[in-house]
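Researcher: Final request for today, and then I'll write up notes for the group meeting. The sequence and the SMILES for flavin-adenine dinucleotide follow.
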Amino acid sequence: MEDLDIVIIGAGVWGSSAAAQLARRGHSVLALDRWTPPHANGSHSGRTRLARQSMHEGAGYVPLSSRAFEVWAEYEAEYGVQILRRDGALLVDKADGMLNGPSLESLVLGGWEHEVLTPGQAMARFPALQVADDETALWEPGGRVLLVDPALEVLHKDAARHGATFALGERALSWRVDGEGVTVTTDRRTLRAGRLLITAGVYGPDLIGLDVPLQVERQILVTWEAGPELDGYPMLLWTDAEFGPRSGAYGCPEPGGHYKFALHHEGVVGHPDDLDRTVHEADLKAMTDVLARRLPGLTRAPTAATTCMYTNTPDHGWVFDRHPAGDQVVYATGDSGRSFRYAPAIGEGLADLVEGKDRPDLAFLRPDRFVGAGE
Ligand SMILES: Cc1cc2nc3c(=O)[nH]c(=O)nc-3n(C[C@H](O)[C@H](O)[C@H](O)COP(=O)(O)OP(=O)(O)OC[C@H]3O[C@@H](n4cnc5c(N)ncnc54)[C@H](O)[C@@H]3O)c2cc1C
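Model: Predicted protein-flavin-adenine dinucleotide complex:
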C-alpha cells in the first residue's frame, strides 16, 4: 500500500496536464498510464492537432481557449520547445453553419483577430480550394498547429520536475471510495490516496461507470506530401454536403512537408477494444471522395494513415464532475475530438476540482445537462 495525495488514472494530455498543475501546487501525485504516451491506443495518436482559437460548442469554452494558449506559450518559453506553430485557420461553411456562425461569435467574444471572406476572396487566397457560392470562409490568423509529441513531453517533464511520479505501463483495474480516501487496484498493486482523478480517455466510460451518454468513435488520420498544391496552406476546416450538419472534414500542415486530412465524426461507434485499428481502402476512399469535392487538384496517393478515437457526448461538450460515489473522486470525459488544444486550461480546472475548489465557470460541463435531453 502506498499513501499518496492524489492518484490520476490516465496520463494522456488531460491527465498529465492535471498532474503538472497538482504537483506545482505541492501535492504528491502518481499518474498511472496503461501504455506509454504518446501512443496510438487512445485519443492523441498522430503528430499534430488543430489549435484554432475559435470553437462552435458554446461561449463557456472561450475563456478556456484563451487560457490554454497562454499556458502553452508559458511552457514553450520555460522549456525552450516549440509546441504551437502559427499557421492560421480557414473555416468554410454556410454562413450560419456550425463552423462559421458559432465560431464567428466565439472569435468576437474572445477578441480574436478574424476576417470573413467571400468564396471568391477565399479561392483567390487559396487557389487549391473549392468554395461554393452559398458558403463563406472565416479566416482566423491566430489559428495554430499543435505538435503532439513535444506537448506531451513538456507536460510529463513539468509534472515530474515538480515531484509527480508516472507509472507507465500500469493499468488501473478498479477503484473504490474508502473512508475519506480512495483505494485503486492496478495490475501490479493496490494504491491508497486521498483523492482520485479519472482521465482515462476512451476507457474513461468503463472506469467512471455512470449512466452518462458517451460513445467512443473510430476516426482516421491520413497524411499526404503537401506538394505544390498545399505548400504554405493553413489549417482548413469545412462541412460537406454529404454529411449531417455536425460533421465535417479538416486538414493541417505537418512537419517535414506533409499535410494531414481527416473526417470529423462519421466513424464507427463501439467499445475501444472492439474498434478496428487497421486503416482499410474503404477508409481512404471515404476521405479522398470528400477531398475530391473540396481540393480536386489533390490526386496523388497518401503516404500514411492511422486510427484514433473520440469519446463523444450528445452536445460534443466535455463532462467534468465529482463522482456521486464521493467528492474525493473527480472524472473528466467526453473529449468529443476537439480537446487537445485546451489541455492546460483543462488541467487547471481539474486540479481545482480535485482540491475541492468551486469552479462555477465549469458547471456547464456537469452531466446533469443531459437529464431529460432525450438523447
Ligand atoms: C483523429 C483525431 C483527431 C483529433 N484532432 C484534434 C484537433 O485537431 N484538435 C484538438 O484539440 N483535439 C483533437 N483531437 C482530440 C484530442 O486528441 C483529445 O481530445 C485528447 O487527446 C484527449 O486527451 P485525453 O487525455 O482525454 O485522452 P488520451 O490522450 O487518450 O489519454 C488517456 C490515457 O488514459 C490511459 N488509460 C486508459 N485506461 C487506463 C487504465 N485503465 N489505467 C491506466 N491508464 C489508462 C490511456 O493509455 C491514455 O494514455 C483529435 C482526436 C482524434 C482521435
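Model: The mean pLDDT is 95. The longest helix spans residues 62-79.
Researcher: Thanks, that's everything.
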